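Quick entry between incubations.
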Amino acid sequence: MATKTESRTGLIDTDIHERVMYEELLPYLEQPWRRYITDCHWIQEKHMPYTQPAVAGVDRADARVPDGRPAGTDLGFMQEQLLNPNGHEAGILTGALDPSPSSMHGWYEMATALASAYNDWQIDNWLDRDERLYGSVQIAAQDPAGAVREIERVGTHPKMVQVLLPLDDILWGDPYYHPIFEAAEKHNLMIGMHHNEPPVHYGKWPRYFIEWHTLIPVAHMNQVTNLIFNGVFEKFPNLKVMMIEGGFTYVPFLMRKMDQQYKDLRHEVPWVTKKPSETVKEHFCFTTQPLEEMTKKEFLQVIDQMGSEDIVSFSTDYPHWDYDSPTEALPPGLDDTFVRKMLSETARKFYPKLPQKEG
Amino acid sequence: MKEFVCHEEDLQPGQMMHATFGKHDIVVCRASDGHYYAFLDRCIHQGAPLSKGKLCGAPQPTDEVGDYDFQQEGDILRCPWHGREFDVKNNGCMLADERMKLRNFKVEVENGEVAVTK
Ligand code: FES
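Done. Structure below.
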């Protein structure tokens, strides 16, 4: 039986946020894009009206770099605070979402340039400097042709394991975006979906952060439903999607609801040929964080209702305020084999570009 | 067991610091009234180091939506991770659920020295 204090050696953490400062992107940006930042002080628009949830905003208060720089900006400090003490075998970088090129509501040329700069910066400063870190290809998905070019350009890097699509107000299953999935599949990259600033309240913002944060799984449900009923997995049978930071307790409801709806309404989506819950089990994986506090019994009931213990993968979300500790967040007493799956083996299977075990 | 963990003047009201007590990491808080309190420096939720959080106030429970009445300045210890609030003057009870509380230690001040006992 796993205990709370047991070491988590061999952890594959599926959500770590590295963070860039705009000035660090400048050497990677061509003109005229660089000029818009240096001369015109361009920064990406943000929409969330609240950034105050915890003691240090949206970051862990102890994750600020000792020299005063924001959390997530320094590899050495991340190694010291996260990767070394927690026994990380691997960590998947998912970006700070600022800038988030695919979230821009216009000026897609700038978004495309930013995505390229970000990828080059990520490779130079993180992937090439710590063998445990793996990356996400940032794209400007609003321009699928440009996004495909970027996937072709950096997706072959041995440590790029997925293409990142943020959850905002675009549903990515629309056929318009399918070239992105085609390029990802071609390069053995998975899709990582992580919310950025989804307006969960009928396209707007609820009055309080606590409402927005409670309802983030709704934004994740939107995307899972949309991908499935737009036939993405019938068209791209090797594609898999990691739903990052929405937790997994919503999944049993959604599987059952989609199956029931499919029986009634299949005629509307005849390109969907598989039972939605089977597609979920075959093509999706869900990161654990932010974990609700559950007993072992409650936790296993949810897993049981998903019908699979192979589609949940542990994530910390470091350095954000709602970080989950690898040694504390899971309920005590879970079976060792299952814990090992959540902590590493499910992610290893999910991402074919991660080091695979012999045999 | 008794150990001196800091000098009285190391902390002003509303300040806190990390200290060690035997093999324990503890957080010593000086509340708004000048009294000292000590807790295990490990949050009861997921183990965050509480001394990296904030000793601050808290909006009081109210009947009015939109009414933020900050009180207890210097008496509420907020965890550096998920931000749960603990009342240092009320045995370290969590504001959102009084049944949950921090592990606390007895504190005395002797000749300008702060002593923790178990
Ligand atoms: S670890 Fe303290 S509130 Fe979660």
